[in-house]
Amino acid sequence: MTTITTGTDTLTRDALAVLQPGFAGTTAPDWLLRRIGEGLSSVGLFGRNVASPGQVAALTAQLRAERDDLLVAIDEESGDVTRLEVRTGSSFPGNLALGAVDDTELTRDVARELGRRLAECGVNLNWAPSADVNSNPDNPVIGVRSFGADTALVARHTAAYIEGLQAAGVAACTKHFPGHGDTAVDSHHALPRIDADPATLHARELVPFRAAVAAGSKAVMSAHILLPALDRERPATLSPQIITGLLRQELGYEGLIVTDGIEMRAIASTYGIERGSVLAVAAGADAICVGGGLSDEDTVLRLRDALVAAVRAGELPEERLADAAARVRALAEWTRRARGAAEPGAASQEGTAPGTDIGLTAARRALKITAGARLPQTTTPYVAAFTPVTNIAVGHETPWGIAVELTALLPGTETGTYDAGSSVDEVLRAAAARRIVAVVRDVHRHPWMAAALDGLLAARPDTVVVEMGVPRAAPRGSLHIATHGAARVCGRAAAEVIAGVAPA
């Protein structure tokens, strides 16, 4: 099931085929094009590779000039985690907002429109959606990336998202198997542990993934988490019991299994990326995602050589590596067929597309006013943004909040950013006599933020509060708005309410 091409042996080609590396720059470096010619079958795009949709389209065309069936993947969850709109903020609200609306047709339409935009840029694999059930409110890495804390809700929206995305010819990669929602540790930094018993895992974590399998998700991404009830020693990504036994055999999944970023510290600090990659493929994973932090040719060569050496040493069966490579190529062929089928009828489909404003429509529907009344702000307010440290999945360069959108509606609006070291007096001095709009994010997880909000409301009871994270804390303020996400369109929807502007 492998392809032999003169100049590179089959084993080496298969080792390259299972890698999904990233790279630096907005054009493809020579080393990447050379490795594609030698058998590399996938490439991952990150925020550093994106300047504009047109530039991404040119980049993917450059890559496909080397290999027409190349998988070009991106981590485009929308909402907080966006790569295509990394510097402007997403025009789609994200999973929690869609779950708050709980309209599966809307979720399907949003995912289809996202898929259409990705396909136009030449991207054919999306490392999304997150099917994690956010059962732990203190989860530092999932939060608004999840459709919610209700298992059945997450399952039905996961299925709808997959159907919408793949209808546009873009393969979905459902993550993070077998479920990252009940963690209190970010696997980018350390190895999380979930101590739930098997019955709980099957009734909660696995339900959305069963729905994903039934919906035909073309790929599933593993999680770097330890689940002692399933495997006492190895995290899911490296566990034969979880990847092969549970996902392949029990859930009957036949598609591509991709690891989460192998350079994340949950793996890199405990096993190392070379050993981790070998163990992952041996456990049943078909593709190694790498490149969020390591994006150079040396990383690709290290992982390629580690896989080849493991086969030659008898540590990794050659048949397992060949099977993994074949699954990668099978998905690549599906995306090529999907692209070819979409191109002839693209113009005729234009009238049935959900529309480029579907994301803003979804954000408006997701917005909840949970305290106070709609009192239009006619004078220029002062926006105080209380900013926590975000997780690595959220690009540090991605803007969030409502200041830009509110300024567009109320010119002259000013803003200030505050963190754990700031005082309420600083906010009051900066605001002066203007009404304050306090923007918070997951206030329930940040005691310093809750204390700042307490002090601010004691001094200025007319403060408007906009919660752009998980709205778990009790609503407070003269007006409390929950956006269920911090995407640009979420900010726009909140700004419209504050300014009393009717949606266009």
Walk me through the structure.
The structure is a single chain. With 504 residues, the chain is of the alpha/beta class. It has helices at 10-17, 30-38, 53-64, 95-101, 104-120, 151-167, 198-203, 206-215, 240-250, 265-268, 273-283, 297-312, 318-342, 346-349, 358-366, 403-409, 424-431, 447-459, 488-499, and strands spanning 19-20, 42-45, 71-74, 125-126, 171-177, 219-222, 256-258, 288-289, 368-372, 382-386, 414-418, 436-440, 464-467, 479-482. It has a 6-stranded parallel sheet. The chain has a 6-stranded mixed sheet with strand order 9-14-13-12-10-11, covered by helices on one side. Helix 1 packs across helix 12 (297-312), helix 15 (358-366) crosses helix 19 (488-499) and helix 16 packs across helix 19 (488-499).
Main sheet record: 6 strands, parallel
Helix percent reads: 40-55%
The counted number of beta strands is 14
CA radius of gyration is 23 Å
Topology, element by element:
Layout lengths: L9 H8 L1 E2 L9 H9 L3 E4 L7 H12 L6 E4 L20 H7 L2 H17 L4 E2 L24 H17 L3 E7 L20 H6 L2 H10 L3 E4 L17 H11 L5 E3 L6 H4 L4 H11 L4 E2 L7 H16 L5 H25 L3 H4 L8 H9 L1 E5 L9 E5 L16 H7 L4 E5 L5 H8 L4 E5 L6 H13 L4 E4 L11 E4 L5 H12 L5
Parallel strand pairs: 1-8, 2-3, 3-4, 4-5, 5-6, 6-7, 10-11, 10-12, 12-13, 13-14
Antiparallel strand pairs: 9-14
